[in-house]
Write a structure and sequence with these properties.
Layout: H1 3-36, E1 37-44, E2 52-60, E3 66-73, E4 83-93, E5 121-129, E6 135-139, E7 142-149, E8 155-159, E9 178-180, E10 189-192, E11 199-203, E12 208-213, E13 223-224, E14 228-231, E15 237-242, E16 249-254, E17 258-263, E18 274-277, E19 283-288, E20 295-300, E21 304-309, E22 318-321, E23 327-332, E24 339-344, E25 349-353, H2 363-366, E26 373-377, E27 384-389, E28 396-401, E29 405-411, H3 413-416
Parallel strand pairs: 9-13
Antiparallel strand pairs: 1-29, 2-3, 3-4, 4-5, 6-7, 7-8, 8-9, 10-11, 11-12, 12-14, 15-16, 16-17, 17-18, 19-20, 20-21, 21-22, 23-24, 24-25, 25-26, 27-28, 28-29
Length: 429
């Protein structure tokens, strides 16, 4: 037996052992799901999506016990099939109706689902796209205007109202409304300003941060160059994020392990206002706090999430440790200021409560993680690519993994609500 064959056999054994562990963990998770969640809906897409974002609108149906939400997703095909920017409708129980564990569907591992297996998550619109979509985000002030990160490096803008719900099978050519130029390599960072309509930031593997003001686009314009290009990282820029409370500040994190803070009022686009050696490995994701302009989260390949205060960047406020692989996404809870979530290549989405930092723990509790770890979502069997908090249903999250699966879930209220008086009596035994 040759040396290459021995190496191959060892690799195959490792892969088989890993798959067996993943299957066993999933079975345990599925068995415990009725006690951990108020809602859990699992949907297999035709192709995986690397991006997900809830739209801010929700449709309530008179006389029905569910409401319809919308989800922005993409595709990542094998290369031989067409890629699409997609908008899905998601039926969820109305917020004023509590879930009941008796509604748990054991076969599908679903709880709180409404309208039948095929009606819960349905693709409503498909827009042809050039290559896979690394990330897609809608403009907060005009939600029909959607920006996408392409594999070519271009950022594409789509006004979804200008496209049919289903593409013409005789013309599958991608025709973005506008092509935003400036990058020469692909990336993932994409951030609209919630304070300045039309201001869009993008980061990529070329080490650049491009800034466009798409508000000035004319009807006949199909290409736009950057309003400004920022250069401060020595390698790929993993993510970029606007400050949600200050219209001139944004942050970027890169493979150079540095966190940079930028001020658009500065005359120099090559010198950030602050630079921090933040992590011991590449930075993949960032998110500014919803209400406090000084607070910022960073996630890294060093498996940690770090909390920073812009008023004193010389030292981090706290390091959150529980992931066992690269942290790929972080996001603050839109309604609860002390809670955020993080996603990782370890197949987990973790929910954190910053008020519990330093809280005392019994030995058996410490085995489950630090006191600030509120919840661990273990429903995915592959790397989690992205997740998003639902803006209309507090504590509802959509998470997308690289194995085509999108899950919409809400942890049991008894986990995050410390006041049992607020929990329906029929749920207490």
């Amino acid at each position: 037996m040759g040396e290459e064959s021995i190496v191959f056999d060892a690799d195959q054994e490792r892969i088989n052992a890993e798959e067996k562990l993943i299957n066993e963990e999933y079975k345990i998770w599925k068995k415990n799901s009725p006690f951990l969640y108020d809602i859990i809906v699992t949907h297999a897409l035709e192709w995986p999506t690397l991006t997900t974002q809830w739209f801010p609108d929700v449709e309530v149906h008179e006389g029905k016990d569910y409401a319809t939400h919308r989800l922005l997703i993409g595709t990542h095909t094998s290369g031989n099939d067409h890629n699409y920017l997609q908008i899905a409708s998601v039926q969820l129980p109305r917020a004023d109706m509590a879930a009941d564990t008796r509604q748990f569907d054991e076969e599908r591992g679903e709880l709180g689902g409404y309208g039948g297996a095929d009606a819960k998550i349905t693709i409503q619109q498909r827009i042809p796209h050039e290559g896979e979509i690394n990330r897609a985000r809608y403009m907060p002030q005009k939600i029909d205007v959607i920006a996408t990160k392409t594999v070519s490096g271009e950022v594409h803008l789509f006004d979804r109202t200008k496209f049919p719900l289903q593409p013409n099978p005789n013309n599958m050519t991608a025709q973005p409304t506008v092509r935003l130029m400036g990058h020469n390599d692909e990336g993932y960072g994409l951030s609209w300003s919630n304070l300045k309509a039309g201001h869009l930031l993008s980061s990529a593997s070329d080490g650049l941060i491009c800034h466009w003001d798409v508000g000035g686009i004319t009807k006949s314009q199909s290409i736009m160059d950057p309003y400004r290009i920022y250069r401060g990282h020595s390698s790929a820029v993993g993510d970029v994020a606007w400050n949600k409370r200050h219209d001139s500040l944004f942050a970027s994190g890169g493979d150079d392990r540095r966190l940079l803070i930028w001020d658009t009022r500065s005359p120099s686009a090559d010198k950030p206002s602050h630079a921090v050696d933040a992590h011991s490995a590449e930075i993949n994701c960032l998110d500014f706090h919803v209400a406090d302009e000084h607070l910022l989260l960073t996630g890294s390949n060093d498996r940690t999430v770090m909390l920073w205060d812009l008023r004193n960047l010389k030292r981090k406020l706290h390091t959150f440790e529980a992931h066992t692989h690269d942290v790929v996404q972080v996001a603050w809870h839109p309604h609860v200021p002390h809670v955020f979530a993080s996603a990782s290549s370890d197949r987990r989405v973790l929910v954190w409560d910053t008020t519990q930092i330093g809280a005392e723990q019994a030995d058996d509790e410490a085995e489950d993680g630090p006191p600030e770890l509120l919840f661990m979502h273990g429903g995915h069997s592959n790397h989690v690519a992205d997740f998003a908090w639902n803006p209309n249903m507090p504590w509802v999250i959509a998470s997308a993994a690289e194995d085509n699966v999108v899950q919409v879930w809400q942890m049991a209220r008894t986990i995050y609500d410390a006041n049992p008086a607020d929990v329906p009596a029929e749920m207490l035994e």
